[in-house]
């Protein structure tokens, strides 16, 4: 064990497994019922959710048909990361995901930072998913002739903005006209207009109740919903293929590489989720064998679906028309197939519900693990005697997601999800280098395939840096994105360390691709993430540092 007064005190793999076993003995533990098929289903449920049904439109609008290549690039970055996650999951099969992995590799302070970042990732992802669900649900009800009052289906900010535009005489889009009308017709409480997104809050409460009742029920619901949504995605691909006009694919990258990469946050959001299945490790029948397989399978399946659906969407209509909240339904409405648009709206509601389910499943299990280690209040580790789920943590997760989903805009959350996730991904990839360096990898049932990076990392660094300098892009790129300095410095350091310690190439590729994608995110994302981090550090030093089991 490390010095127990150190910020970087670490847990050994044996210690973590022993703590999980003791917690099981004390509380009856979680039900071990998940196999490979269930895990792949949960992974697909998380990945093929709000991303493919909503944010894919914005990414296509910015990057044109070339966004299909961005999906491939992002998937490659995710594969490097997924392999690293898979190695950790096979070494430390407990519910803490990247939080637990960081505890082994980097020590307590980094573990806390990652746990805190994951709270942001999961909670914020679910807010986006809940708001997206609400939009599709309202569209679906309208298709059946049921129209909810506007002020019950929108956030106050969007309604007020649209009304302000109306006052200045600006030309409003159809969506903005509806938002302005919602503002005008909202009931008043004194001077305050009552406006909130009721469906978003309601679905969060219902899904939280299902997750509270049990993993078995959640698994069954997830499996059914995944079969339905994969069927619909295939239907969109095959039906849409008949309406593709190849001329819509030219120009392939209308806004250049910059336009394509501006969709990074949206596209990456569409992939987040493969890591969430690692939070169910303690409910797997054979986590060390099944988790690595499931992560790779669901990533491959989802990448193929994403690339095909992006090519079909941008082939059916011009990319300039795709900046809408429900792009899949929109393209079929646009070509007059209202029946298909209706089918997609119904299935989107189902698909997005399953994504919501997986995130609501993952969040409480991370809190439970942090609580077991003493870093959060003991109550978060409470297991329900009948349902065998982390009951208190599940209820708090429901409240934390439902309240903001009632009152905030979706755009605000999409970008926010990515920073914490990239941060977690980089530490997990770095953690594998630590496992290799210290020999802990010998305990891993699954290992990232070893490719000796001794010379390759440095050679690629020199080539890439020389190419950027030669083309004169370096200064303007750094002026535009100051974080690129961190990227180049990290690559330089990894080149030296890789030469000295014969680093495995794939985890290094994972670190670099995630770090590069991170530089593409806006300053506001970073600012909010830093504020979130500061709040987390205050809580850690006020509570976790003193109450930690290792202290």
Automatic annotation (TrEMBL):
InterPro entries: AA/rel_permease1, CAT_C. It is a multi-pass membrane protein. One of its GO terms (molecular function) is amino acid transmembrane transporter activity. One of its GO terms (cellular component) is membrane. The chain crosses the membrane at residues 39-59, 66-88, 100-124, 136-154, 194-214, 226-244, 256-274, 294-319, 339-362, 387-407, 413-435, 455-470, 482-498, 525-545. It is found in: Membrane. Keywords: Membrane, Transmembrane, Transmembrane helix, Transport. Residues 505-548 form the Cationic amino acid transporter C-terminal domain. Gene3D superfamilies: Amino acid/polyamine transporter I. Its main location: membrane. This is Amino acid transporter.
